[in-house]
Amino acid sequence: MPDWFDPGQDHLLTPKTLRGLVHPIRLRLLDLLQADGPATATGLGKRISESSGVTSYHLRVLAEHGFVVEDTERGTGRDRWWRAVHRTTSFTFRTEDDPGTEETMEEAERFVRLVADESYRRASSFIGTIASRTEELAAMPWTVSQWPLMLTAEEARELRTTVSEMIAKFQRDPANPDTRAGAVRAYATFQLIPDET
Question: Does residue 150 belong to any structural domain of this protein?
Answer without folding.
Answer: no
